[in-house]
Amino acid sequence: MPLTLATWNINSVRLRLPIVRRFIGEYQPDIVCLQETKCPDDQFPTADLRALGYEHIVVNGQKGYHGVAVLSRLPIASVERGLFCRHGHSRHLAVTLGEAAGSASGLTIHNFYVPAGGDEPDPEINDKFAHKLHFLDCMEAAPGNGTLRSQRAVLVGDLNIAPLETDVWSHKALLSVVSHTPVEVERFGRVMRAGAWIDAMRQCIPAEQKLYTWWSYRSPDWAAADKGRRLDHVWVSQDLGAAVDDIRVIKEARGWDRPSDHVPVLATLQL
DNA sequence: ATGGTCGGGTGCCGA
What we know:
The chain is α+β, with helices and mostly antiparallel strands and 271 residues long. The chain contains seven helices and 14 strands.
């Protein structure tokens, strides 16, 4: 059975409801993981999204900032809200699909929103960067808690790091820009290795090819400048490596009306 | 080399 799963930093779910509808209408994903919902749980547009076929909705939101949510057409058996953040931000949610999900039964999906880290890539003078590094350290340590190392697992989200040279428009220009600094990329690699994760996007799209999921709002013509970064990721556990059938970066969504600065990444798994 | 634009919730902060 094919399972389609999307991850999208939506930058306010209430404001973007029209383009969430458009994306769902055009691509019909079974599961949608959202980040930066910027919405308290009691104000999440649950009824609107349920009406689109997502009967199973789990949110971990807070007022004004951050926030993650999982929309699922398949039944969810259990939920976990991560303790990855020393500031108590809503930056993680994990769901495990239930028996009634058929061949997808037992699949665990982690949805992460890693701190952006501010402007100055020095943890001594920038606490936001220190927090980002600490958050990554907590993600790395999590397999010891038995959360990330489980089999039949997918980890998606806005990880706010572009690890490869081809994940940014200019490797040289971005070496000292938060999101592509060597210290972050090294931490990113440690998290991946600790959980034995596979980078599903790069398994499908060769590392020689430029690949971006985010284009700044500050560019007057984002498409012409094309100064993007791959900040959003889809990882799968080793046992699911062969199940990854397709990855699509929905670049056109950056050009939709009132867009997010991130675009959806859509993964198809054959389970 | 610099500054550029968003969103949320207030009189800026975070991205």
